[in-house]
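Translate sequence into structure tokens.
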Amino acid sequence: MSIPSQFDPKAVENKWYDYWMKNNYFHSEPDGRTPYTIVIPPPNVTGVLHMGHMLNNTIQDVLIRRARLKGFNACWVPGTDHASIATEAKVVAKLKAEGINKADLTREEFLKHAWEWTDKYGGVILDQLKKLGASCDWERTKFTMDPDMSASVIRSFVDLYNKGLIYRGYRMVNWDPEAKTTLSDEEVIYEERQGKLYHIKYRIEGTQEYITIATTRPETILGDTAICINPNDERYTHLQGKKAIVPIVNRVIPIIFDEYVDMEFGTGALKVTPAHDVNDKELGNKHNLEIIDIFNEDATLNSYGLHYAGKDRFVVRDEIAAELEAIGSLEKTETHLNKVGTSERTKAVIEPRLSDQWFLKMEELAKPAIKAVLESEEVKLYPSRFNNTYRHWMENIRDWNISRQLWWGQQIPAYFYGDGKEDFVVAETAEDALKLAKEKTGNTALTISDLKQDADALDTWFSSWLWPMSVFGGIMNPENEEFKYYYPTNDLVTGPDILFFWVARMIIAGYEYAGEKPFTNVYLTGLVRDSQRRKMSKSLGNSPDPLDLIDKFGADGVRVGLLLSASAGNDIMFDEELCNQGKGFANKIWNAFRLIKGWEVAEIAQPDHSAKAIAWYEAKLQKTLAQIEDDFEKYRISDALMAIYKLVWDDFCSWFLEMIKPAYQQPIDSATFAKAIELLEANLKLLHPFMPFLTEEIWQYIAERTPEEALIVATWPEQTPYDEKLLAEFDFAVDVIAGIRTIRKDKNIPFRDVIELKVVNGENASDYFDSIITKLGNVSSVEYVTATVSGALTFRVKSNEYFVPITGSVNIEEEIAKLEEELKYNQGFLKSVQSKLNNEKFMAGAPEKVVANERQKEADALAKIATIEQALASLR
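Result follows.
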């Protein structure tokens, strides 16, 4: 079988992926082996592959492929998330483009469109992951809206409600006016924005006096129902019992007193709009204030907005400011920097809004999850610095708003049978709800048509927090064989940005439903940024298309490029050159393989240098294996790859192959060739998790393999003891070879010219690798002597002195002249340094670090002079 001269990723990637799929290597069923399980962080069904997905899924694939090689029953469950807000927004936009308004559709009609859209686009990102080489168990692919997954979510809701942990309440919530739904606190991103502070004058009723209020939102004066003042503020004590008139609307409102008000901010007086601010709502409850909601669900003004009704809030802000100025009620405006809440999904500015919503009590639920990470360490975060972030959020956790005003998602299983807020029952099915409603009311005449299910859907995260359990049927049937076998899972790889949204909540759910952790280790990746440290985004145009990168550099090259700089939790400064480096590494390995396979093999005696090279490389391989096992244990995936990279590039390609390479047009002995192939195969096993396509291609070229012998299911190299002393002796020999090569280069002695090497062995160094030195230095022999050799070029390795007798190609007089010039320079340098050290004033005033630096210079100069003098002595 002829070997192509170049490694062509395009020619092998589909071939081997299809081969792996055909032979079902990715699929797992419970058996007698120890399971190793990871569940994919399900990407949005709306999504396409981006650089963050590339990094995250490459790391997961490295872990799962290594587990497979180590003999575990490796199971990687893929899937997608229905992403309520994002998907519904895309479907609404699609319908709008077709002239269809969502409001004109029934829920069933809309969901039909949503499913059509999902069926058409939902599998795109999973297909793209295959291009990367992701070895997921595709037969287990799950979608958070699959019937069994939805049933798990509904059962969880009913269970938590029956335990008294879910309740319905009229609360101030975060409202996304673009998605037209509520959001949890964690889905609100606060951004600093430059705005204005408007100073508005409110006339005191029955007088010509005014009180000035500072606000960033003048449009909300239309919903003002009080002015609040700190009772300790002496400026306003005369206003006790008074009322004020809201400009434009001319509504008379009470002036109330409460220590909540900050006397130092603005004018020290606060307008109170209970329908549009969470703190104002608390003041409203405390002082029995009227609640006036001025906004529609899309943040346009409603009828309370008077002549501004129907206009957008930000348009109204400017128009109200202009009207206030026109009527003399705007005292002044000034620039003001404040934090504005925006939707994590749509980026719209959030509106606080009063609404009936469903909440999950979190304080008690969170306690086992706090203990698991911060006390018992049953769950470990990598890097551990995220423990502090986790602690802060978990110890300050709030009740979770789990309802969303959407149709795409699991519909809340609450059924209303009357007009009152408490006239509802919670059940998994309408039939069960009817039974409960009859029991609750005593009305046996009720029918299913009398029940009206809550129109809201559940928060998408309320679905995905069950993911490690629900993918194995652990909610609906916790005693099933697969759940008991695969759960808890082993590793979770995800980004720190969803540590709260997802990771913490999965831990909470695991202890609540299974009584144990959902996973043991959480590897938190960094964000992929560009070389200017900017977060990659389509809007900035700095995010390359991952599929274009794969097309250009090959999947293996991209994987290596990403992982070489991907230490846990640290952001990656991505540069395409990293992928080019990965491509270069693939080519280096391919060329090394071609070199070995190009040698003629003969049944001849094994040279000593080849036997020594094999002994050294086997020890080096074992030392590297021990290091990467430690790296994997500590989730230093980047360090593990770098160790393998150096082993293969430096030790195997640059040293080992050079040591065993036969002379020009000469054969290699069969024993060395067999060992070279064996060691290459060991390298391929270590590389396979990182570079699956290249390694499988070479593995299959080496010999004809049955499907049972494919690299993907080979056996990870076994750890054995290694000789550290042998490795140290080789490092010493490398320094000797470097010395020989330097002399050859400096003195223009061609490598084809054989030289002699004599050594005064002051270091008492081993002669074990002398045969390597003679081969790589083209040395006729290494002779150990007791005295300096005259008429020779010299170099030192530690306390050993090496002498290369001068041949006719070296001009001794020129060498002596060069060395004398170098000696003169170094003696002058030494004199200048010693003059400083002998200067009392310098020594008394110079910092200790500066003095130490000068002493080091003196020691270096003395050593250099001694070496030059010795070289001169050997030449004279």
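Note: The mean pLDDT is 92.
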